[in-house]
Known about the structure:
Distance between the termini: 13 Å
Shape: globular
Structural class: mainly beta
Largest sheet: 9 strands, antiparallel
Helix content: under 10%
Strand content: over 45%
Number of strands: 11
Number of helices: 1
Mean pLDDT: 79
Amino acid sequence: xxxxxxxxxxxxxxxxxxxxxxxxxxxxxxxxxxxxxxxxxxxxxxxxxxxxxxxxxxxxxxxxxxxxxxxxxxxxxxxxxxxxxxxxxxxxxxxxxxxxxxxxxxxxxxxxxxxxxxxxxxxxxxxxxxxxxxxxxxxxxxxxxxxxxxxxxxx
Length: 155
């Protein structure tokens, strides 16, 4: 098992129970169709990219073998731009703040996007970039800035 954090990727003890299961397949749409033909059922149908003008992500952060934060990110088309809405919860689904943090698009490129907070609290900026197999989350807060580099690991 590998854990990611500000210091990079480090080995950790296996969990006592699985927290999630991830599979990588070459053609997800074909695999979903095959599973459905065998009687499988999905709570959410297969989607290729953004649907209905939005895309969403659910993130679970762990440390010391336990979840320490759950985050919901929704990016939506608005007029001629994008808006990011972010909500975080502590363990036990205790909200870290009321409502969603709203961020406006300030930079977009072929493999990079950056959002800036439109309010006074929370993250100041949040960016995502992809360089080869390296995906980087760039975060700016009132206390400073840092990157979370994530690198695709070979199977």
